[in-house]
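new request in #modeling-help
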Amino acid sequence: MSGLKKLNRREFLQKTGVASGGLVFAMTLGTPRGAAGAGASSVAPNVYVNLRDDDVVEIYCHRSEMGQGIRTSLPQVIADELEADWDRIELLQALGDPKYGDQNTDGSTSIRKHFDLLRTAGASAREMLVAAAALEWGVPASELVARNHAVHHEASGRSAAFGDLVATAAELEVPEKVTFKDPADYRYIGKSMDLVDGVAMTTGTAMYGTDTALPGMLYASIERCPVYGGKVRSLDDAAALKVAGVRQVVKLPDGTSPPAYNPLGGVAVLANNSWSAEQGRKALAIDWDTGLNAEYDSERYRQQLVDTSHKDGQTVLNRGDVQAAFEKAGRVIEADYYAPHLSHAPMEPPAASAMMHDDGSVEIWAATQDPQSVQGTVATVLGIDKSQVKVNVTLLGGGFGRKSKADFSAEAAWLAKQTGKPVKVSWSREDDIRHGYYHSVSAQYLKAALDDKGNTTAWLHRSVFPSIGSTFSAEATGPGNFELSLGMLDNPYAIPNMRLESGDAKAHVRIGWLRSVCNIYHAFAVCGFADELAHEAGADPRDYLLRLAGSSRKVVPADDGAEYSNYGQSLDVHPIDTERYKAVVEKVSAMAGWGRELPDGHGLGIAVHRSFLSTVGAVAEVRVDGDGKLHVEELWLAIDAGLVVNPDRVVAQMEGAGIFGMSLALHGEITAKDGVIEQGNYDTYPVIRMSEAPKAINVHIMEVDAPPGGVGEPGVPPVAPAIVNAYFAATGKRVRELPLKKAGAV
Amino acid sequence: MAIEFTLNGKPQSLDVDPQMPLLWAIRDIAGLTGTKYGCGKALCGSCTVHVDGNPVRSCAFPVSAVAGMAVTTIEGLSADGNHPVQRAWRELNVPQCGYCQSGQIMTAVALLQRNPNPSDEEIATAMSGNICRCGTYTRIRKAIHRAAGGES
C-alpha cells in the first residue's frame, strides 16, 4: 500500500477540485471504503477515468473535437500512463462541468496545457490497480508492474486483468502522488494512432451540433439585424405564420453592448422542419433600427487605422534608441502592411439544441469549444444557476474560434424556454458570415534602418487594430497586451534598437479569436518586412533570417520593458529560443531545396514564426503565369512543437494550416458598407478548393526534447508571408496587403 | 401529394412541400443526418448524395425531382462501412473535423464509378465543388488514388 494515503471522506472533499502545487488535478471521490466500495462494478479514480469490472476502461474527453484530433490524442496520453490496452478503451465525451478544469478548447492548449494532467489521470488509475493487486496477493506494490491492461507479479508469475482488480480498487483511496512512466516505455504517446472517430466520420454516423433530433423539436431560423447592434423597430409576422409548417414567430431580446456571448437579438421563426423555418423567415417584414454602426464603412475605417499607424503610439517594448539609429542610418525603409477582417466559416455553421426539463433546468446539445462558457451564458440569459445547465458537447464541424462563443447555444436555450418545446437553432451560411465574431482587421507600420553592411540596426513596428476586448468591455478601445503577445512582443530578432508600439481603434463589429488570432497579421508584417530587408541588404532571405535571429540565446521581452504573456506559460519552460528558431529556418529551407534552380515564373519564399509555444517555418513555391495569376505549387512546413503525442495528427494540422493560411492569403476578406457585411457565402467569401491546393504539403516534425507546444494554430501564421515572399521572388512585386486577390494575383 | 422514391434501397413516401430541398427531406423528414448542410447554394458539396448514381447537391435539388428515382446517402453507400473509398479514407486518416467528408466521399465514389483511375487533374476537377475548411485536400487526393488501386 505504499504510496497510497488513506483519507477520510471529509479530507477528501476538501481536496476535491482544489488545485494545489504542481498537481493541477481536479479529483472526484474514489468510492470510499465501506460505502459503495465492496462489490462495486466500477471505480473512478478521477473524473477522466472510470475502470469497469468488465475490463473496459472508460476515458472522458473533456476537450472539444473540431478536427484537431483531440479525441484520439487525449486518450493516447491517459491510456499510455494507465498501461491500458487501446482496444479495451471506451471514449466518452465529457459534459460541460467545472470539475474537469479548463474545457475551453482554444489557444492550442489541449495537449500543451493538459499533458501532465492527463498523464496524472492515467497514472493514478494505474497505481490504484497495482495497489489492489498488492492487497489481494499480499505482496509489496513495488514488486508489481502494470502492463497491457493487467497487473503482473514477475516473481510468482501471477497476473490479473484490470477488470478483475476493480472490486478491490474500489475500496482504496486514490493516490496522493503518482510516478510517471519512463518516456522510453511510452506505447501510445508519440505514435500515430488511427482516428477514434474514423468509422463514424466515414459512414455518416458522427453526430455534430446540427444533427441533434429531440422529440417534438422545433427548427429555428433567426433573422438578425443586418447591422451589428441594431434592433427590431417593428415586426409583421402575418405572412410568415401562413407558411406551411411554421408554428411560431418569436422576437428575441435585443443584443447587449458590449456583446459578450449574448444573442444578437432578432426574430426567430420556429417550424416543423428547416425548410419551413427558412421560408417563414423570408416572409417576415421587419423594420430595423440599425443603430450606431450603420455608418461603418471598412474602406474609410482602413484609412483611419493607417493614419493611426503613422502617428506615435503607445510604446509596449523598447530597446536601445530607434530614433537615434534612424537619424544616423545609411538607409531607412518604411512599409505599411494591412490585413482585413476574416470570418471563420467552419463547414458546419453554428448550431445548438436546447430542451427545458420539468425542474426548470435546461439541457443543451451544442457544437461548442467551451461548454462551461455555454453554462454561464445560458444561465444568465435564462436567469437560472449554472448548475441547472447541462451541456452535451457534440462533434464540431470545424471551430477555428467561432464556436468558443456561446451565443447560438443561448439562442436555443431562450427559445426553448419561450416555446416550451425543444428547439434546434441552425445558422445558415449567410448568418455565419454576416453575423460573426470577426478576426480583427489591422494596419501594421514598419520602419527599419540598415547600415552599410546590410545589417538591420533599428526596427520600429506599430500595430493598430480593434481589440477582442471590445467584445467584453466598452473600455477596450485598443490592442491589449494579450493580443500584442501574439506574435509582436516576442520578436526574436537581434536588432540593437527596437521599439514596438500599439495604436487604438474602435470596433464596429463583434471581434473574436480566429485560428492563430493576432499572429496572422503580426507574422504577415514581421516576416514580410524581414524579406524586404533581406532584399534591401542584397542578401538571401533565408540567410538573412539567420542573421536577424543572431546568436543562440533566449529572448526575454521583459528585459525591454514588455509585458509578455507567453501563452500563459513560463519562459523558463517555454523559452523564445533563437537556437530552435534557427534550426527551423535551416530545416524547412533544406526540405524545400532552397537555392535550387527554378523554372521561369517560379519563386520560393520563406517565413518562420513562433506562436502558441511552437515554432513553424514555411516555404512556399509559387508559379506566376503570364496573366500575373499566382499558383501555390508546393508547401514545406517544419514544426518545433517539443514533444508530440500523435505525429500524424500534427502533420494533419500542418497540412490543414497550409490550406487555411492559403485561404486567408489568397481570398479571405470581410468588408462592410453602411454597417452591412458585404460577403455572405462561399461565392463571395471564397476559401481554397482542391483545384487551388498545392500538389504537396510536406511536413517535418523537429525532434526536440522539450515540453509540448501548441499544434492547432501555429501552422497558420507563416503561410501567408511565405506566399507573399515567394510572389516577390517570382515577380519582383511586393505585396503588403492581404488577400493577394487585391493585387490582382489571384 | 406524397413524393415516392427509394432511399438507400428502401421505399420512401414523403408528404412534404415539393419544393423542399432533398437535403432537408433526407435530414429532417427521413431522419438521416449523415448528409450535411454547408451553404444551401450548391457551392460547397457537403450535401452531396447520389440520385440514380449521379452526384447531386441535395441542398439545391427539390425533393420532387427525385420522384421514382433511387437516392443513396453516405449511410447507404455500403452495408458495413467498407466501401473501398471509405476504407481508403480511414487508412489515410483523411478526416479532421469530418463534417464535409460524407460529401467528399460521395463525390469521390461517383468519380471512380465513371473514371476508375483518375489523374490528379481529373480528381481536382471532380472534387473542386467540395470544400474542406480543415484542408484535407492532399489526403483526399491520395485516398482516391488508393481506392482506385484497390478497386482495379
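bot summary: The mean pLDDT of chain B is 96.
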